[in-house]
Amino acid sequence: MKLYFMPGACSLAAHIAMCEAALEFDLVEVDYQTRRMDCGSDYRTINPKGSVPALRLADGSVLTEVPVILQYVADEAPDTRLLPASGMRRLRALEWLNFIATEIHKSFSPLFRPTTPDAFLQPGKAHLRSRLGFAERHLSNRTYLMGDDFSLADVYLFTVCRWLADQNISLGNWPALQQHSERIRFRPPVRKALDREGCK
Ligand SMILES: N[C@@H](CCC(=O)N[C@@H](CS)C(=O)NCC(=O)O)C(=O)O
Prior knowledge:
single chain; alpha+beta; Glutaredoxin; Glutathione S-transferase Yfyf (Class Pi), Chain A, domain 2; 2 domains; four-stranded mixed β-sheet; 7 helices; 4 strands; 50% helix; globular; binds glutathione
């Protein structure tokens, strides 16, 4: 398999997941500005949406969208229990993946875009804060989003919380989120993915 990524982007969640699942894969870096890959070819020939991550499977097909790739990885390594296998627990984990994707990840996106009008930045950050507040309250009496069980929802939350520093927002505003991030950061597969992407 091949994972297409940009260092520190949401593709980090997929990268960590692959490491957690101990799957064999190659990494292909995509340049944010040019959308060129290491080999010089245009990444949009792999994923016409132009965004990372994309995961090329052994049969040549390409999967995109973070929550979908995370589910694929979890299902490829069922013994690692990276997501609940089925039933209501699975749905609760998917609720978190969807919430992180649509409410947290996508609240960051306009903050990173240089074309976003200044007038949007404060309300955009306020919205992001309220969404993080929801996760904070949930984590205030839990170790992981799913309670006692680590899951790929934690990996995705960790990945997006890393971006607060780029926005000069302190993660310390959310003590439970901060503790959660530290817990995830020191997992060996997480360290491995961070190191390979040149991230702290
Ligand atoms: N819905 C997509 C969003 C992916 C996304 O926003 N990727 C960002 C990096 S975090 C990206 O590639 N941005 C560049 C672009 O979209 O042109 C997913 O879940 O994979």
